[in-house]
Amino acid sequence: MDDDYKNENNNENQPFEEQEGRQGQDNSSENERLNLTPEPEETQPEGPSGSVQKEEAAAVGAGVDASDCKQEPTSGGSKKTGKKKEKSGEKKKGFWGRLWSALKFIYMVITVPYFIMVVLFIVAFLAAVFSQDDLIDIEKGSRFARGGFNETVVIEGERDERIALIDVQNLITFQTSQQFKSRIKKIEKDDSVAAVIVRVTSPGGSVSASDQIHHYIQSFKEDTDIPVYSYMSGVAASGGYYLSAACDQIYAEPTTITGSIGVVLQSFNLETLMNEKLGVKNITVKSGEKKDWPKMFGELTQEQLDYVQNKLINPPYQRFVSIVAEGRDKLSKEQVLKLADGSIYYSEEAVNNGLIDGISYLEDLRDVIAEENGLENPEVFGFRETFSLDYLLRNTAEETGFFPRAEETLEKISRPELMYLWRLDN
């Protein structure tokens, strides 16, 4: 009886349930239509999460499981979400992220120069080790440390009988004389060399270095009987002319400045600067009165000037005059003394005064040498310094003046140096 009653009630309620189901489906479709309609961006600050919540609410009202109504975000929504994630990632760096980036940059700035130096060091080592040139100059030490030089053709010609060209450039120093010595010693062993040209482009320099190069030229001439010609280019004065006097003949370009036969010595007096400006007083303990003449501190007296003139200036000056008189057969010592007042001479004036033999360019000088020595179209070759550790350090430290040591700078200032040098003072 109970079962029959229940079945009857179910049959009676079935039409109402079907009607309610249809109404629920209609409501669900209406809710979906409303949810799929996009809203303005201003009303959707929550992004995709807001639409998902609405869909879940509609699904609950329709009696559908909320997990079945979740939709994948559109491509536009994913891009916005990605951008927000990137921004949030940048914000997470914050202070420590920026600090780490700064530290990495500082590390690179510090390490990159050292890395470059290591690379150059390796390149120099390989270049020195694997070089096969016969003219590499290694008198002492390793090839890598000391470097050397290679031949380079200056004027094309026959290689059977050649003319060697040695350059003396810029300020003449001890290093200049040693480089000259290395080159002329190699030429001495080369049987193909028929003549030598010493190209001078220098205002002079150290008295000792100029005299050393003069000596090397004379010794070469005595040992080989090979003629040596001086070729002056630009400025070849004082020490530049001193070493040229050892050559058999002297030629110069039309615009060359030469002469300046004499000696110069310069020193600094720092008494006013140290005492009055800096408040520093010099204390010198010496064994004799003249031990520190000329003084850097204290008044320079006439007695001190006379002492320096007689002891330091006159002896090298007299030697300069004698060297020129011996090297120039056209001039007597008295004629040289008239010219040796420190004056400079233009090329044409130097020819008229007997200081040089002619005016010529390098190509024309080659023809003159070929004619005088019976050569036919000789090749003119020079020397090019090879890359080495010595070359690298010298060009980056000495010539550029990077990182000079304080004691070296003070020593150069305080040390008076005799110079066969022509220069202009303010």
From TrEMBL:
<protein>
    <submittedName>
        <fullName>Signal peptide peptidase SppA</fullName>
        <ecNumber>3.4.21.-</ecNumber>
    </submittedName>
</protein>
<keyword id="KW-0472">Membrane</keyword>
<comment type="similarity">
    <text>Belongs to the peptidase S49 family.</text>
</comment>
<feature type="region of interest" description="Disordered">
    <location>
        <begin position="1"/>
        <end position="87"/>
    </location>
</feature>
<feature type="transmembrane region" description="Helical">
    <location>
        <begin position="105"/>
        <end position="130"/>
    </location>
</feature>
<keyword id="KW-0645">Protease</keyword>
<dbReference type="InterPro" id="IPR004635">
    <property type="entry name" value="Pept_S49_SppA"/>
</dbReference>
<keyword id="KW-0378">Hydrolase</keyword>
<keyword id="KW-0812">Transmembrane</keyword>
<dbReference type="GO" id="GO:0008236">
    <property type="term" value="F:serine-type peptidase activity"/>
</dbReference>
<feature type="domain" description="Peptidase S49">
    <location>
        <begin position="223"/>
        <end position="375"/>
    </location>
</feature>
<dbReference type="InterPro" id="IPR029045">
    <property type="entry name" value="ClpP/crotonase-like_dom_sf"/>
</dbReference>
<dbReference type="InterPro" id="IPR047272">
    <property type="entry name" value="S49_SppA_C"/>
</dbReference>
<keyword id="KW-1133">Transmembrane helix</keyword>
<dbReference type="InterPro" id="IPR002142">
    <property type="entry name" value="Peptidase_S49"/>
</dbReference>
<keyword id="KW-0720">Serine protease</keyword>
<dbReference type="GO" id="GO:0006508">
    <property type="term" value="P:proteolysis"/>
</dbReference>
<dbReference type="Pfam" id="PF01343">
    <property type="entry name" value="Peptidase_S49"/>
</dbReference>
